[in-house]
Amino acid sequence: MNPHTFDVVRGTSASRTALIVAVLLVALAASLPFWGESSWMREFVEIACYFIFAMMWNLLAGYGGMVSIGQQAFFGFGGYVMLMLGNFLGLNPFVAIPLGAAAAALIAVPVSFVAFRLSGGYFAIGTWVIAEVFRLSFANLSAVGGGSGTTLTALRGIEKATRENTTYWMALACVVAAIALVYLFLRSKRGLALLAIRDNEVAGESQGIPVARMKLAVYVVAAFGAGMAGALYFVGNLRISPDAAFSVNWTAFAIFMVVIGGIGRIEGPLVGALIFWAMNKFLSDFGTWYLLGLGLLAIVVTIYFKQGLWGFAQQRWGWSLFPTQRRLVLPMPSTEKRPAPVSSTPHLEIPAHAKHQ
Q1: Contacts 24+ apart (CB under 8 A), 297-302
Q2: Residue 265's CB: how many other CB atoms inside 10 A?
Q3: Measured between alpha carbons, how far is 265 from 263 in angstroms, rounded to an integer?
Q4: Any idea what DSSP says for residue 69?
Q5: Domains and CATH numbers, the chain
Q6: Where are the alpha helices (DSSP H) in the chain?
Q7: Within 13 Å and on the Cβ side, how many CA atoms surround 110?
Q8: Tens digits of per-residue pLDDT, 101-115?
């Protein structure tokens, strides 16, 4: 073997084991409507919406370096497009979910012309202002209920069990698609280009990376995922209003989940979504103490686990369920050329006349 050759390793034993476990879990989850309770499916749909929205925010900010606090604009827009397609055009709302996501991606293109004129903190505040413009615009549309909102009437002719089962399967498919899409994107050359842009735009552009085009692509993909999460959420909720759809709490929750789980990691939003759902489920009855608990947890994690809970576990034990980095492994030298083993403890010769001193 040529001693100058090396191997590029992208997977780990943990990732291969995780893939097998994930396939088994998805197969088990797909059968839940046949043996589980309807409350379990509703809880899963809620977790799925949290996770997908947090995953898209992590892609935009954690990998792309574009910190936005206005992603709820595309969340609500996807939900409203789904409702209008169902109520006004008679389209099946489940078919309208991907169409609502596509509409959010399309509207993100002209929005980006305004948002990308800003940078840093101005970009974050600007996206929030854009989201407020969306909220006020839909609040003045009487056709969709104005400020009080309206109900998704397109599902009236569908039985409750069929509606819940289909919503659950759609949520499961959207979760798998979101993970696979982000994972494959980050493992590609475009993923490397995105990380280079996040670290230093000027250096990335000097290496031939189309910075503006890459940022636009990531912004549009993040809007698509946020729109899909919004359409899915309001199919399960059956009612939509501007205050619920375009609330800044959606982005605040996404930031909380990503920071708690670990920003810049695919596993981070998953861990953060589970923790946020558990706290929301079991502590929300305590009122303001619940919000104080969320803030206290965020403070503890940011002080003692600066890279998030999963980031700490990855550094401590080397866990990586979705490895995106490339590792170079140098081959071991042949046995003929390998030097004689050297003891880790040096051996010192002591002269005879010094042994008695």
Answers
A1: 297/260, 298/256, 298/259, 298/260, 301/259, 301/260, 302/259
A2: 23
A3: 6
A4: S
A5: 7-331 (1.10.3470)
A6: 13-30, 32-35, 38-57, 72-87, 93-115, 121-139, 160-187, 189-199, 201-206, 211-237, 242-245, 249-261, 267-283, 288-304, 308-317
A7: 4
A8: 999 999 999 999 999
The DSSP annotation for 204-265 comes to HHHTT--HHHHHHHHHHHHHHHHHHHHHHHHHHH-EE-HHHHS-THHHHHHHHHHHHH-TT-
b/e per residue 98-132 (b: at least 16 CB within 10 A): bbbbbbbbbbbeebbeebeeeeeeebbebbbebbe
Euclidean distance between CA atoms 316 and 138, whole angstroms: 48
> Could you read off the pLDDT of 219-250 as tens digits, one per residue?
999 999 999 999 999 998 989 999 999 999 99
**Is the separation of the CB atoms in 308 and 268 below 8 Å?**
yes
Residue 233 to residue 79: CA distance in whole angstroms: 8
Residue 299's alpha-carbon distances to 83, 252, 294, 295, in angstroms, are: 38, 14, 9, 6
